[in-house]
């Protein structure tokens, strides 16, 4: 093998020119990588913004629903208190209507009923002293 003549068909590469081309290729690759990174970050930013907007709208909606429910709760508690007071009044009336003395008093006062042999006198209502 050592006796074979050198192959003249192989040309020598210009190392300096290859290095410049390689540097241009690397620079182009880096530029494409940066452009791709910028695009990905832009898309991620847009998606994150959309998620934040939807979450914000959801939170505001839930807050307003909670406020409306609290207002309704206050109104219902007031109604409950009124109904409980009315229930207590009606229970007292039921107890009074089971009392014979109370019924007799109401009959005498409101319906002018009297016991046998009793005479009722209706007095005029008191007027003010100035009249």
UniProtKB/TrEMBL annotation:
Residues 1-35 are annotated as: Disordered. The keyword Zinc does not apply. One of its GO terms (biological process) is cell division. Residues 66-100 form a coiled coil. InterPro entries: DivIC, FtsL/DivIC. The chain crosses the membrane at residues 41-60. Keywords: Coiled coil, Membrane, Transmembrane, Transmembrane helix. Pfam families: DivIC. Residues 17-30 have a biased composition (Basic and acidic residues). Residues 1-13 have a biased composition (Polar residues). PANTHER family: CELL DIVISION PROTEIN DIVIC (PTHR40027:SF1). This is Septum formation initiator family protein.
């Amino acid at each position: 093998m050592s006796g074979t003549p050198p192959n003249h068909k192989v040309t020598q590469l210009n190392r300096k020119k290859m290095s410049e081309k390689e540097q241009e290729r690397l620079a182009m690759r880096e530029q494409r990588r940066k452009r791709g990174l910028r695009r990905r970050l832009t898309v991620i930013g847009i998606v994150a913004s959309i998620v934040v907007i939807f979450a914000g709208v959801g939170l505001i909606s839930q807050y307003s629903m909670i406020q409306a429910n609290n207002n309704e709760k206050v109104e219902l508690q007031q109604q409950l208190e009124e109904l409980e007071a009315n229930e207590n009044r009606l229970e007292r009336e039921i107890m009074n209507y089971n009392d014979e003395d109370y019924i007799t008093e109401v009959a005498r006062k409101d319906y002018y009923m009297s016991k046998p042999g009793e005479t009722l006198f209706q007095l005029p209502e008191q007027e003010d002293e100035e009249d």
